[in-house]
Amino acid sequence: MPDLLFRSDDSRYGLCLTEECIQRILELCSRSGGRETGGVLIGHYTESLDMAVVTTATEPPPDSKSGKNWFSRGVRGLNARLDEHWQHHQFYLGEWHLHPRDVPDPSPTDEARMGRIANLDAYECATPVLLIVGGDPEDEWLLGAYAFPAGEQRVHLRAWK
Ligand SMILES: [Zn+2]
User: Quick one: 57 exposed, middle or buried, by C-beta within 10 A (0-12, 13-18, 19+)?
Assistant: First the structure.
């Protein structure tokens, strides 16, 4: 599987996922026992600042909670982890999570959470991205990618070849 690219129609926002990250995410999803799971996306922006390049997808922090169709990402250990990446010029870029056997579209809760992150100084990320894995992570999986510019409507990032 090559790296996957997603872009907004106006090319202002993009997301690049390395093969390693996708494999890692799918592996975590298939271990979730039919419940939602998720984590944080870490990486950097390209020089033109229009593409977030994800180099690390984390597992759910240990204080995360989830059910069949909800996920609350915990925070334990996350700051230390982000500080460590920071030293290697890799930053918080956004979130990923699984919608088991469902469509990879953001729920109203997802929207609200991402909006909050965009406006939170703690993350220093004005346009967080959200990657949703839908379908069956072990078979026919689907990816939905979205950017959430602070104070603006969410932007759909389409798969780009
Ligand atoms: Zn969701």
Answer: buried
In the chain, the percentage of residues whose pLDDT exceeds 70 is 99
Give distance in angstroms: CA of 59 to centre of ligand 1: 16
Measured in Å, residue 6 CA sits from the centre of ligand 1 at 19
| Positions of E strands within 46-137 | 52-57, 65-66, 71-72, 91-98, 129-135
Who surrounds ion ligand 1 at CB < 5 A? Answer: 107, 110
Q: Is the pTM of this model over 0.85?
A: yes
- In CATH, the architecture of 4-160 is 3-Layer(aba) Sandwich (3.40)
Is there a catalytic annotation at residue 36?
Answer: yes
Reported as a single tens digit per residue, the pLDDT across 77-134 is 999 999 999 999 999 999 999 999 999 999 999 999 999 999 888 888 889 999 999 9
Per annotation, catalytic residue among 36, 59, 111, 138: 36
